């Protein structure tokens, strides 16, 4: 995001076409935008909608650039080369300073997978495509996003993409449709806003990140530059409009939350507020004097650097502390960010700006190209080397290797990450699935059916089946529990899971498979939520999601078990392993590296509360249909304590999937199923 996008004061005070002049109130407006963003990100209470500051900046940037470009075009003095020279002088120095500093911190602090994600974002930030990169990866408000040091560069990318197209559009319109310039821009604004309002309720991540759904905010500011509605002559009216604009922004800052559908129609509040302040140009009343107050103007002057520095400082502080920031820590980070921003503005931004810069145009473009290539090259190197694990101490590398300890049942072609990575529906119905147990049998004695947790548990079943001399098949699909026709809340492609489950059910029926293991991430489905703050840190003081949303799960599982029992298929319900709440290899590797405790599993009472509902449902249905229960939880949690490691190695490859090695050690739990399934009704870790 370009938080401060005006040309330097020495330029704007020159008499240029379009009569663009420096306005201190706009720097004050920048301060009203950046401070809520920083306070919101730092976790300071009361600023739950602080993220709307980005939208205020979009409006400001649209106005300033349109004022400058349209003025130069009107005076036949516009140069695309000079335009991009100004952009480079304004944007690149501070941005690349932050990218370089963040790269050093990431190299020292991040684990390989984390560094690999960072490298992708670094490469995208250098090419101004990070909004597209982050749209592919995750949502803005989830923990994955909150631990990405360069997340904030998405808005910078949006503006740069806009300013590749906008000057060309204005040049074309001034040449071929000057009379219709404003109506055309207004039409584009309406189309973009309508698309944003549509998408925010359908694909909110795309609506948040992508240019086509954000362009209306920049165009709103741009239209102000054409003075379509003359500014009121009476100062009292201008003051009232500015005050109203500030109120609208404040309503969004203090009234919105992470749960507000955004941007879409909700973004009108801060955007119209910013537009009113710019339109009014108040000077002498309370609103005008407040916006022009020296402290506020100074914060506006350093707002670009403040935006760039504050987010990496927050993210790397979380990395170091291993937990969410306290109020005191958040306050210290706000202060530190202001200091960094002031230094960056004085010693990084200003030397490159205006006519006083010693770096000529040719040298400037060459230096920018070299730095961009260097950033992209470093990103590519890290990605090619899978996060450069060799930079870690040997003992840390050994622990972190658990991240990659996945059996063939957890990856394609055995496991389906999507409809194109695993077995096709016709393959499933034909029984062309990965085998479990002994080889060579054409008649499967059992089937493992479930989501990704079934893939993680399959090495245990595979080992037990080999010991018993029986063979079976594996049918696993990401985020698709064995719940045919379940009316679960929409979180993905429901039809994909319905088709997968229907094909597996057809296979069981047509091949008369006598034994079926049903495995899934049960707590997630009965509560319709994973644990809060899953990521590199975990806070057990935040209660786990416990709302009972089990009705569709219970109904579907009941129907399936009734159907399988009628056709003579024996059922084994596998209880879920305890969730760890954060990524175990990263957490334990960092503990080893810092010589702190590796006992990082959640407390037993936390796990017990989270598991109680799903365990009660499975126990009741098992009793109803005479099914067997296998329970791995006592093998991980015992004597009021849950283990994160065994023999110094993580038991999990992430936050809720056990490693292949840990799974193989649980094969003893499943052996009694194959020895005497008709007599075994309930197995546990104490079996």
Protein described:
The chain has 687 residues and is mostly helical. The chain has 29 helices and 12 strands. Strands 1, 2, 3, 4, 5, 6, 7 and 12 form an 8-stranded mixed sheet that branches. The protein has a two-stranded antiparallel sheet with strand order 8-9. The protein is elongated and about 90 Å long. Residues 1-19 and 677-687 have low confidence and may be disordered.
From the structure above, extract its key features.
687 residues, mainly alpha, 58% helix, elongated, disordered N terminus
**Whole-Å distance between the termini?**
58 Å
Based on helices, strands and strand pairing, what is the structural class?
mainly alpha
Q: In oligomeric terms, what are we looking at?
A: single chain
Strand content: 5-15%
Helix content: 55-70%
Instruction: Report the radius of gyration as a whole number of Å.
Output: 29 Å
Low-confidence stretches: 1-19, 677-687
Major sheet details: 8 strands, mixed
How many E strands? 12
Number of helices: 29
Overall outline: elongated
Average pLDDT taken over every residue: 90
Detail the topology: elements first, then pairings.
Elements: H1 9-12, H2 24-41, H3 53-74, H4 80-109, H5 112-126, H6 130-137, H7 143-146, H8 153-176, H9 181-199, H10 204-209, H11 211-224, H12 235-255, H13 268-280, H14 286-291, H15 294-301, H16 303-321, H17 327-349, H18 361-384, H19 394-400, E1 415-416, H20 425-429, E2 434-437, E3 446-450, H21 452-468, E4 471-477, H22 494-511, E5 515-519, H23 522-527, H24 551-566, E6 570-574, H25 584-594, H26 604-625, E7 628-630, H27 633-636, E8 637-638, E9 641-642, E10 645-646, E11 649-650, H28 660-664, H29 667-675, E12 682-683
Helix pairs in contact: 2-3, 2-15, 2-16, 3-8, 3-11, 3-13, 4-5, 4-16, 4-17, 4-18, 5-6, 5-18, 6-8, 8-11, 9-11, 11-13, 12-13, 16-17, 19-25, 21-29
């Amino acid at each position: 995001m370009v938080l401060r996008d005006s040309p330097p004061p020495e330029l704007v005070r020159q008499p240029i076409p379009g009569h663009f002049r420096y306005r201190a109130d706009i720097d004050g407006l920048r301060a009203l935008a950046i401070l809520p963003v920083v306070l919101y990100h730092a976790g300071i209470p009361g600023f739950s909608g602080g993220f709307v500051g980005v939208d205020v900046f979009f409006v400001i940037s649209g106005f300033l650039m349109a004022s400058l470009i349209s003025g130069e075009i009107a005076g036949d003095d516009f140069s695309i080369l000079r335009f991009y020279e100004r952009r480079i002088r304004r944007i690149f120095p501070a941005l690349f300073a932050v990218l370089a500093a963040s790269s050093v911190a990431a190299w020292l602090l991040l684990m390989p997978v984390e560094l690999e994600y960072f490298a992708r974002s670094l490469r995208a930030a250098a090419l101004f495509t990070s909004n597209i990169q982050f749209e592919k990866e995750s949502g803005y408000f989830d923990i994955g996003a909150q631990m990405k040091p360069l997340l904030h560069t998405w808005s910078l990318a949006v503006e740069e993409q806009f300013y590749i197209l906008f000057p060309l559009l204005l040049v074309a319109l001034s040449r071929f449709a000057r009379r219709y310039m404003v109506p055309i821009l207004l039409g584009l604004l309406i189309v973009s806003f309508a698309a944003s309002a549509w998408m925010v309720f359908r694909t909110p991540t795309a609506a948040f990140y992508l240019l086509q759904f954000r362009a209306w905010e920049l165009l709103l500011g741009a239209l102000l530059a054409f003075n379509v509605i003359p500014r009121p002559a009476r100062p009292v009216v201008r003051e009232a409009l500015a005050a109203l604009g500030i109120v609208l922004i404040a309503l969004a800052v203090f009234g919105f939350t992470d749960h507000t559908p955004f941007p879409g129609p909700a973004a009108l509040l801060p955007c119209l507020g910013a537009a009113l302040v710019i339109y009014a140009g108040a000077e002498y009343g309370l609103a005008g004097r407040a916006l022009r107050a020296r402290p506020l103007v100074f914060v506006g002057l350093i707002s670009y650097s403040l935006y760039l520095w504050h987010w990496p400082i927050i993210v790397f502080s979380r990395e170091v502390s291993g937990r969410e920031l306290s109020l005191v820590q958040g306050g210290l980070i706000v202060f530190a960010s202001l200091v960094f921003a002031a230094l960056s503005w004085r010693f990084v931004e200003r030397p490159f700006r205006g006519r006083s810069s010693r770096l000529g145009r040719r040298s400037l473009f060459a230096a920018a190209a070299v730095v961009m290539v260097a950033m992209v090259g470093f990103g590519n190197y890290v990605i090619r080397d899978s996060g450069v694990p060799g930079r870690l101490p040997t003992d840390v590398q050994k622990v972190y290797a658990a991240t990659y300890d996945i059996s063939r049942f957890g990856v394609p072609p055995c496991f389906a990450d999507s409809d194109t990575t695993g077995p096709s529906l016709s393959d499933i119905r034909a029984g062309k699935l990965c085998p479990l147990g002994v080889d060579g049998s054409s008649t499967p004695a059992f089937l493992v059916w479930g989501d990704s947790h079934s893939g993680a548990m399959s090495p245990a079943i595979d080992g037990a089946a080999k010991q018993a001399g029986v063979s079976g098949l594996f049918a696993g699909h990401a985020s698709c529990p064995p719940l045919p026709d379940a009316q679960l809340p929409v979180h993905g492609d429901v039809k994909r899971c319905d088709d997968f489950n229907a094909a597996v059910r057809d296979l069981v029926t047509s091949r008369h498979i006598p034994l079926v293991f049903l495995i899934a991430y049960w707590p997630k489905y009965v509560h319709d939520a994973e644990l809060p703050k899953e990521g590199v840190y975990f806070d057990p003081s935040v209660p786990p999601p416990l709302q009972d949303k089990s009705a569709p799960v219970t109904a579907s599982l009941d129907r399936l078990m009734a159907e399988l029992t009628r056709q003579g298929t024996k059922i084994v319900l596998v209880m879920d392993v305890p969730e760890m709440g954060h990524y175990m290899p990263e957490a334990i590797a960092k503990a080893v590296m810092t010589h702190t405790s590796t006992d990082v599993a959640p407390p037993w009472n936390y796990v017990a509360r989270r598991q109680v509902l799903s365990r009660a449902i499975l126990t009741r249905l098992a009793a109803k249909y005479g099914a067997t229960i296998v329970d791995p939880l006592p093998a991980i949690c015992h004597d009021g304590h849950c283990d994160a490691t065994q023999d110094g190695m993580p038991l999990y490859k992430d936050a809720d999937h056990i490693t292949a090695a840990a799974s193989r050690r649980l094969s003893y739990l499943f052996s009694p199923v194959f020895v005497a399934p008709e007599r075994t009704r309930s197995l546990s870790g104490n079996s």
